[in-house]
Structure formats: C-alpha cells, structure tokens
C-alpha cells in the first residue's frame, strides 16, 4: 500500500474515532444524560414513537445493545470520508482549517441534515426543538471528522 493510501486510511480511522468520541459526548452524555433520562428520551419533549424505537420495539437499535458493529462502521465511514476528502480537496483553498471546515460542511449537509429531515422528522415525529439540538450535535460530529481528516491529510503539505 502506498504512503498516500496509508495516510488516507489513517486519516479515516482518526476521523471515525473522532466521530465516535463526539457522538458519545453529545448524544450520550448531553442528550441522554448519565442516567439515560436526558432530554432526547424525555416523554415531556420527545415523540412517543421515537422513544419506543430506542427503548421498547424489538430488536432495539444495535448501538443500544451491541455498539461495537456501529463503532466499527463509523470508523469505516471515516475511511470513506478520507478518500472523498482526498478526491475533493485539491480544488479547495489550502490549509487545515479551510479544508476541514469545507469537508465538515459537506458531511453535515449531505448526511446529517438529510438524516434528521428524513428519519427523526419524517418517520418518527420528533419535535423541531429536539431536531435543532441534534443538528448542533451532528455539526460538532462533522467538525470533528472534517478537522481530524484534514489535520492528517494536510500534515507536511
């Protein structure tokens, strides 16, 4: 494997790990709270349907009962993201911050914004206020991914 491919894989693993870590800090610790009764599953604010999907309807999401495949999958997405970054960044202004922010914006709009619109809003009836909070979480996750990948890919450039 060439040095450029090794760098892409390393950047992707780091980006995927960054996404996993920020997801843990935002959705788990802030959104669900350390007791699992945070705002994202609070029936006073959240749709009953979304709560049921995450806590009652079998099978529960893998991330609840068996998170390892999801953690590894997100690292895999990080590797794909690094290759997309490698393909797109030559047309962008140079610099870790400029490229990292552009890539984060691309991931946010193409993935996370669409996800929140199509699934929590469309299918699960999540209230707009909680969708807005989750979009902040997703923006932080996209920034972690974009800046981690950019920092590795731009090192020594």
List the keywords:
157 residues, mainly alpha, single chain
What does this protein look like?
It is a single chain. The protein has 157 residues and is mainly α. It is 75% helix and 0% strand. The chain has one domain (3-153). The protein contains 6 helices and no strands. Helix 5 packs antiparallel against helix 6 (128-153). The protein starts with a helix and ends with a helix.
Continuous helix count: 6
How many distinct beta strands?
0
Q: Sketch the topology as an H/E string, one letter per element.
A: HHHHHH
- Major beta-sheet overview: none
The amount of helix comes to over 70%
Rounded to the nearest angstrom, the distance between the terminal CA atoms is 20 Å
- How many domains? The number is 1
Average pLDDT number: 96
Unreliable segments of 5+ consecutive residues: none
Query: Whole-number radius of gyration?
Result: 17 Å
Structural class: mainly alpha
Shape: elongated
Amount of beta strand: under 5%
């Amino acid at each position: 494997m060439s040095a450029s491919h090794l760098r892409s894989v390393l950047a992707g693993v780091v980006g995927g790990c960054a996404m996993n870590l920020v997801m843990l800090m935002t959705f788990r610790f802030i959104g669900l709270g350390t007791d699992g009764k945070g705002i994202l599953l609070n029936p006073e604010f959240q749709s009953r349907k979304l709560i049921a999907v995450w806590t009652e309807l079998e099978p529960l999401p893998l991330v609840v009962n068996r998170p390892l495949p999801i953690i590894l999958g997100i690292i895999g997405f990080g590797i794909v993201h690094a290759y997309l970054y490698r393909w797109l960044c030559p047309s962008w202004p140079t610099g870790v911050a400029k490229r990292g922010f552009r890539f984060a914006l691309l991931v946010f709009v193409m993935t996370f914004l669409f996800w929140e619109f199509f699934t929590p809003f469309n299918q699960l009836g999540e209230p707009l206020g909680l969708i807005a909070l989750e979009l902040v979480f997703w923006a932080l996750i996209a920034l972690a991914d974009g800046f981690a990948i950019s920092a590795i890919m731009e090192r020594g450039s």
